[in-house]
């Protein structure tokens, strides 16, 4: 099974590229309706220590240039709003010198043998594929240039490509790509060593703002999301699931449900019990009907008797109180530097606070939905999935089919944020299609989505900071308690994994002589998953709001405090201080992507400058600051807040400075930061899942709120630091620093410190 | 079950459905117009927004039996060529991220502009507050509506 949290999986950063000529038949198998043309297959591989190729991680991307000059690129990553269907092809096209208007993009189906790991999360598509994509473009360019040079009888070195043409600089001769395709086809494919990549200054698309390719389809309602997938004779299923995780159907009466016109079948689904797993459907009863409304109505009329199981007494408020006690005890040390206890004993001042954050639901605007067709021993799926291969294997496992008999087609995703990397809803569709013999689309309602998410776990964290006689931050102790994602697969897990801690806790970068990071037991009672930026959310909240308090206690400006504590320009590895583990660094080798204090300091200085940090503000208004590195990207954030006499919070301005290495599609980086600020504003101000008697208490967007336009941050200013470094993630890094920056601003405006999310100034 | 004749995007459709079936599911499941989206089913998110005559309504919470001979317009019927001023502005500002909420946003904004050709920033926020965007495209939505209203 291939369901890994995005920070736990080993990324293959040293990818090599191999480019081969692909037969037309090969390409047709990919699903592109193409005829002829020059077709290149690009296979990516990494080598083991002995230099042997490891093919299992080898994604193949296909690139075709037709005799009409149209360039077709197969996109193998899922599109969920981050713009990857635009950004990856754009890289190929820029290196190739294609005319962007003549580039067509086809979505690949889920196939690990062909595309490698397609799981689209962890903000790593660009990071991993930037160089291979350029190499693919460069090989195609060289082929076309050689074909043109032959025809013109000139040296290839004198030729170049531009806007879908090869041109000869000296004579001004030009030929369209399409006219060269036949000749290029007969040439041997150049080796990677023969190509020369463009200089960054020659880019026409990379580093600029390119609109997303699905734009027109989206604004005209033609874009096909998971919910829009359809096939001949399709029926709709809606499922009543056991309200408590780990429970099961005891018996049910479907008399009333069956009386609804349009209802075809009622089928029980067996659940996994506990652990609930990251891939299996929950226990429930499904209604299959002619249309969605009949299925919803009938589902609500089902009378089910449940065996609720051991989580039936679970109460999240009570667990939070218990964890608040836990974090006052000695826990398990996970990182240790110096002697914190001695620092505390010698301290002039000790600041000690506990930070609480609730469960969160992803609440993607498109609820989970998947269509399955089962014929004999094969199954075809259409779904909004971030993880088509995980889905493929989970479906094969559930149906008892060979993996290669399952085909997963990826639609556009109406939001994902980590939810749609779990294939449970896809397996539901497959099981029901097999059992009923009908093409079945499973539709989750919003209530289903809020009740049965793979939740972002609640969190209790205690930070103790000590200040010594020289007014220095001498000690830092971070206590952490939350149910681990790993517990969803293994109920025995009670403490956070190293991967989770590496998201802003054990990688605390500040130059403090005495550090403890300590974890505590917290049992999981729901399905715990990962949500955009994952544990960085509660960890950055605790760390960056405490640092603001430290600055105040030291009488130092928060920005100056952060710059000072980051210390000398240096690369940090953390490893020698971690207990029995190494720093996971988002799956990347720390040697390739070190934690660089200089880069963090630069974004901090930049955001201070852009926001006018230090300027005087009218009464009730203030600026707050926080900085955080996640997914290898450095982000500093300043939030401006206004709080009126009724405690109404307004956010007129948000300033970000970001170093994500080389900026590929500037417009989509900006939009991810704009959206990231809004996403963080939701969790800071609005969203909370609570559980009583093992059951989620919120049902829909009335109980589980996300930010609406009138209260959303006004202007979001995104400043991208110019960099030629390797590109890093942009989907998740905007989220973590916004919330603590907002909390710090609220303190400046009101004198009230925030220790509990979502923010409630009335209490 | 009952028979209804409704007018959608200038075309008549005869449907035979449950009386309480929301217009949303009639459009999506019965007529096959899928640009209108399902987000909450409870009039809380605006993803399902269409026009009933000139008003923006939440089709998820509007039963077919209440439609009568009103004219329904969906995103597919907003403009012939996909070039309504709002659609153009949406493209100019590259508003969408995942795109799922956007047809509802556009339909809601179109109803606003029909009633108020030059809304203030505050009027835009008030009119759009029923439309959620989980991806957080609010700032660009505001910019696009403002530009289209010029
Ligand atoms: S689906 Fe109708 S308002 Fe949400
Ligand atoms: S663009 Fe994704 S919900 Fe609005």
Descriptive report:
The complex is a heterodimer of chains A (763) and B (150). Chain A is of the alpha+beta class. Chain A has three domains: 204 residues, Aldehyde Oxidoreductase, domain 4 (2-Layer Sandwich); 161 residues, Aldehyde oxidase/xanthine dehydrogenase, molybdopterin binding domain (Aldehyde Oxidoreductase, domain 4), CATH 3.30.365; 343 residues, Aldehyde oxidase/xanthine dehydrogenase, molybdopterin binding domain (Aldehyde Oxidoreductase, domain 4, 2-Layer Sandwich), CATH 3.30.365. Chain A is built from 19 helices and 31 strands. In chain A, helix 4 crosses helix 5, helix 11 runs parallel beside helix 12 and helix 18 crosses helix 19. Chain A starts with 15 loop residues before the first strand and ends in a 13-residue tail after the last helix. A five-stranded mixed β-sheet of chain B has the order 2-1-5-3-4, sandwiched between helices. Helices cover 36% and strands 17% of the residues of chain B. In chain B, a hairpin with a 2-residue loop joins strand 1 and strand 2. Chain B folds into two domains: 76 residues, Beta-grasp domain (Ubiquitin-like (UB roll), Roll); 64 residues, [2Fe-2S]-binding domain (DNA polymerase, domain 1, Orthogonal Bundle). In chain B, helix 3 crosses helix 6. Chain B has six helices and five strands. The mean pLDDT of chain B is 97. Chain B is globular, with a radius of gyration of 15 Å. The chains are: A alpha+beta (763), B alpha+beta (150). Chains A and B meet through helix 6, helix 8 and helix 18 of A and helix 1, helix 3, helix 4, helix 5 and helix 6 of B. One FE2/S2 (inorganic) cluster sits at the interface of chains B and A.
List keywords for this structure.
heterodimer, A: 763 residues, alpha+beta, Aldehyde Oxidoreductase, domain 4, 3 domains, 6-stranded mixed sheet, 31 strands, 24% strand, globular, B: 150 residues, Ubiquitin-like (UB roll), DNA polymerase, domain 1, 2 domains, 5-stranded mixed sheet, 6 helices, 5 strands, 36% helix, binds FE2/S2 (inorganic) cluster
